[in-house]
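Q: We require from you a single protein entry containing the residue sequence and its fold in token form, and nothing else.
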Amino acid sequence: MTSAPLLAWRLASQYLDGRQAADPARAVRHFGAVQAQEYGQSLWAVGLRTRAATAAAIEAAIESGSILRTWPMRGTIHFVPAEDARWMLDLLAGRRIRAMATIYRRLALTEEVLGRAAEITAGALRGGRRMRRPDLLALLASRGIDCSASPHGGRGSHILGYLSMTGLVCIGPMDGAQQSLVLLDEWAPHPRSPEDPAAELAARYFTSHGPATVRDFGWWSGLPLSQVRAAIERAGPALATTELGGEEYWHGSGLAGAAPGDGRAGTGGPAAGGALLLPAFDEYTVAYKDRALLLARGRQLPAGDLLNPLMVLDGHAVGLWKRVITGRGAQLTLAPFGRLARGDRDRFAVAAERYAAFLGLPAEIGTATPAQVRRQRRP
């Protein structure tokens, strides 16, 4: 197998080949977790993979509580199915909390301080209440919890991160431009308890991201490789392997893990040579330790380019893009790394129109150089 069919297979696994989930909750459930620290970008990450999706439909799923945002792995915000949030936090977040111990000590975030913050927060949110992030931090400060900035970062941010990773709170629907915080137990009142959480996570990852390596899953989950290998073994018949260049790649077995061209996977579309406008930190780019396969042969890119909003053609990164919302609609700027054939330019124009339709706005499409987009990209 060469990189081209492997990438096509990944596009199929990732619901980027023409197949899509029926609704946002099913899309997120397929992945297990979808990186979501940039809110607007993360709506599009789910929307790309959901049939007839709009930004409003994804936000409605958040408002209904079928999907939520929290910090299950790597200290990074993800969308997760509401019913899976608790066991994912229990499985994954503890490693991050232990890794933060030195920073907590430097910030004097003792068990007593964090316990007091948890008590105040629980009292403020109990009964289905929501609080905007700045308002909750102000409340903690008014009750004697120092939430100020320091040389090691904002104490308030670390407090809220801790309360999220320990499963007290999660992020609720947006309140204007601000995150709201809610109690996880009230927002997700029907948690699941899988018999083998690590094996289930392995099955979901490789089915939705495969073919991928053991190291890829270790990077994505934050679990040590010994635990990763054991989870894969326990996942048993849910997973299968293939080989590329002497490397073992894992993927889902059955229809969900079928390779393009075997008559079972996909319905055409991007895996057959289509154009995609991926959001920043998309699962197609961020969820693998080794991202070299995304680059065309011989191409070198600045560090971080593959985590920016990306133009993808035939599975490969071919440019950057950005959006600006104006009073007239969505101004979309495409910045290919090199010259595109006319047919490919037309396909990216269709992809831009699809994104504008997702936003419910008319599109104004322009072009720029990658250097111009990098300068304009906010930190």
